[in-house]
Amino acid sequence: MILATLIIAGSLLMILYTIASKGMQSLTWDIISKVPEGGYYIGKGGGILNAIIGSLYISIGATVLGLVISIPVVLYVNIYAKRNSWLANITRLTFDVLFGIPSIVYGAFGFTIMVYFGLRASLLAGIITVTLLVIPILARAIDEVIRLAPTELSDATYALGATRWETSLIFLRQAIPGIITAILLSFGRAIGDAATVLFTAGYTDSIPTSLGQPTATLPLAIFFQLSSPIEEVQNRAYAAALILTFIVLIISLSAKYFSKKLSKHKI
Amino acid sequence: MSYKIRLLKDRLSANIFLELSLFSILTVVLIGYGLYYKSSPILQQDTLWHLLSSTEWKPFKNEFGFFSYIIGSLAVTGIAIIIALPLSLLCAIYIAEYAPHRIRQILVPLIDLLSGIPPVVYGVWGVLTIVPYIGDHIAPHFVDYSSGYCALAGGIVLAVMVFPLIVSILLEVFDTVPKELKEASLSLGATEWETTRKVVLKKSVPGIIAATVLGISRAIGETLAVLMVCGNLPMIPHSLFDSVYPLPALIANNYGDMMSIPMYESALMLSALILFVIIFIFNAISRLILYRIENRS
């Protein structure tokens, strides 16, 4: 048993070690701070700033859009609908199932919508597709905290004459630590996911300036550079992987930190 | 504020929130329908059975047989579960029943971190360590030649990816086993291992099944990490060291070319539909099992 545990925990450390040791060798300031220059893909100068910025745009956009949809749904299920009503149960099941749907299916579906509406592969299409991916993550995480809030809280607000809308605001206030954790989780998932943006966001060497332009993303930058036969380009893929891992680890660690720290003063 | 405005706000928000909820339930239907709509041309051309059982994949001749891709998916998923299930089970038992509190507090976040790592990073790790190790050290003992990009590599990488999912679900399941049951068993003189085996595990069988099914559906839909390590040759593998070409990799690799041949796009959308249906059913079943366990406790 201890051996099994060691293997599982060890595989994490091994992944981190491999990525860090390989990535450090080729990580330079240029890679973080420059967009690809001419001949970048045959080993000449430049960096992957375009992919870093693109990934940030998509993750932020998708998380914000996801919040706008998931918070009302969670509030409806917990406060407006009756506890354990048919609708509430179906909604929870839906999110649990959607949570398991792989990103390639979202990617294919996003591509279908894109073609249907006549959109090109663009930042907007990427954000919409990734939003579909993060909605279940956000909804499940927020639902978990709101569901745990004591029923006395809603009893008290209703007794004071508050409407359901006002009660929702009270619950939302109560759920802020959970919401922050949810945001970080969703952001981490969005920034690391490749299969959704593969079809929908396209890839370019410049930083997008409008929603209609295609954009590069970090996971795809890693993937494309790794498949290059030129060693220098491959090495940059390792550096990019290190950057991505670093961002994701920072996000998950701060998610842990926030959920611990902010839940201290909860009712 | 006058009470009319307050009531209006309340009713307005109720309506909007309800619509958003219905909309999000509808997403599942929309995804299914959208993929079905896109894949209907190829379903009209061939029967589903023919598509699933044929190995002929010649897009330019309008022949689309998914059999080798399906076998590829099953192979990597099977290997992954065979590796991941026993290890995760032992690890979860250790964390839940044996580990001291301090160690538990280190291990659980560590496993959570593992689940946060993006698939593409798993892929890079696989290419850097697993693939060369298999190619240089393991495969030569069994077969004449293997590049290392093979079913086994895909299975190992996937196994590592599903560890955290299975372990965290199992931990939740073990938590729902009533403490009284364990105490009763221990007080009757059973050893800790006997209690674990005959009380905790026995009580958790449905949960273990649900965790496994969720693990399978995560593994079968995983795209990029597998694509990077399993070689992507559409053939029926004869050993662990042959290349395979799973369904998600098929979709991801051909997204660029598919626009030129209409039937090609339809075929790829059909493979997305197949994945969607399988994973939808698996997920729904295992979630329902988990809900029942939750309600019981």
Short description:
Chain A has 267 residues and is an all-alpha fold. Chain A has helices at 2-26, 29-33, 49-80, 86-100, 103-116, 123-148, 151-159, 164-174, 176-192, 195-200, 218-226, 231-262.
Helix content of chain A: over 70%
Largest interface: A-B, 79 and 82 residues
**Low-confidence segments of chain B:** none
CATH homologous superfamily caption of chain A: MetI-like
* Strand elements of chain B, count: 2
The level of helicity of chain B is over 70%
What this model shows, in words?
The complex is a heterodimer of chains A (267) and B (297). Chain A is mainly alpha-helical. Chain A contains 12 helices and no strands. Chain A has helices at 2-26, 29-33, 49-80, 86-100, 103-116, 123-148, 151-159, 164-174, 176-192, 195-200, 218-226, 231-262. Chain A is globular. Chain B has 12 helices and 2 strands, in the order ααββαααααααααα. Helix content of chain B is 78%, strand content 1%.
Helix/strand layout:
The complex is a heterodimer of chains A (267) and B (297).
Chain A: H1 2-26, H2 29-33, H3 49-80, H4 86-100, H5 103-116, H6 123-148, H7 151-159, H8 164-174, H9 176-192, H10 195-200, H11 218-226, H12 231-262
Helix pairs in contact in A: 1-12, 3-6, 3-9, 3-11, 4-6, 5-6, 6-9, 7-8, 9-12, 11-12
Chain B: H1 3-45, H2 48-53, E1 57-58, E2 63-64, H3 67-98, H4 101-116, H5 119-142, H6 151-175, H7 179-187, H8 192-203, H9 205-221, H10 224-229, H11 247-253, H12 262-296
Antiparallel strand pairs in B: 1-2
Features:
heterodimer; A: 267 residues; mainly alpha; MetI-like fold; 75% helix; 0% strand; B: 297 residues; two-stranded antiparallel ribbon; 12 helices; 2 strands
